[in-house]
Structure formats: structure tokens, C-alpha cells
Write the C-alpha cells for this entry.
Amino acid sequence: DTGVSQDPRHKITKRGQNVTFRCDPISEHNRLYWYRQTLGQGPEFLTYFQNEAQLEKSRLLSDRFSAERPKGSFSTLEIQRTEQGDSAMYLCASSPRRIAGANEQFFGPGTRLTVL
Amino acid sequence: QQPVQSPQAVILREGEDAVINCSSSKALYSVHWYRQKHGEAPVFLMILLKGGEQKGHDKISASFNEKKQQSSLYLTASQLSYSGTYFCGTHTGANNLFFGTGTRLTVIP
């Protein structure tokens, strides 16, 4: 399977705990995105990497959220001191570098986070 | 910057046609269309670029009017497999997409 993979698929945690999610993009894709999706809504952009550089962060991304892509391959998204409002599906997507704005994004299956 | 989609939901019988609209208040560089089935990740359908164009993909096609900052997705002769939530994602020149709230399409036999 050469698609985007995410791990874990489901995570249940207690309020105040830290959680970390992993995303493995399609191997030749240098762009990687994190989105958050809540029930009945479209994906909301969180952050974007081009290779290992984090080039853009949404205002939605509070200081409890941090993302890395250390070698320009897989990425991790960490949420510290989780809150119930963090419960959502966290989606990762990757895209190849072509014409700006013309890059289709391929989504992974997502990690569903439930904060109790 | 979130685009507005209409309708919010539509129910079709197999073989009927549907149009889903997406409009933005910002100048658009491109529009991306995705379909998401319940519990699954969004699946890419097509991109339309600035310059105003139409694209087709089997019986699913789309148009992009950059002057009006609008795009429409056309589904013809709908099949049961078309059921799902359709999202438009708009690209305004930054690196990320802004997704609409989606249009839930249900195709019944």
C-alpha cells in the first residue's frame, strides 16, 4: 500500500494527558499537511510542511499543539494537556510539488481522538 | 475564508442529476473537490485552476468561474456509489486549502 498512513487510528485519552500522532506520507511527496475535522464540518487546516520546514501554521494551532517532520519524511503531531475540545479526527495529507495551488492532496485514514 | 457550499444536503434516485455549488468571498487560485464517505478519509476528485475551466471525470464534471469566485460540481446519472459528503477546497494563494462545510449526497435505488 503506497498511500498515506496514520497511526494510531483511534486514541482515547484523559483530559490533561499528552498524545502524539504519526503520519507517513506517500514517499515521493515533499508536502505534508495536518487538518482537524469535527463532526459535520470540513477539514480545518492546522499546519503545513515542505520537506522538513514547517512553513505555515493556522491560528487554530494553540501552543499546546506542536508538529515536526524531522527528516522530511514522516511527521508527528503532539497535543499537550489535552482538553475535551480537542476531540476530533486528525487528518494528514500529502501532495507532490507541482504548480502552486494545483497540487492534489491525498489524505490518510485519520486518527480519531477522544478526550474524556 | 471558508467557502460556502449549497445545498447542504440532497437526496437523489439512481440515474438523477445533481449540482453542488461552492462560492468564496476571496479571489481564488484553484478549487479542489473531494468526496468523503462516512468514517473514511476525503478522496480527491479533481482540481480546477484559475483561468476558468471545466473538467470531467466519468460522469462527474466541474466548472470554475474565477470572476465570480464560484465552482460547481455536476453529477450526472447518479449511482449508489456517489453517496457521500462532497467538499470543495479553495486555494487563495497560500499553501493550504479552506474547505466548505460539505454537501451530503444520498443516492437511493
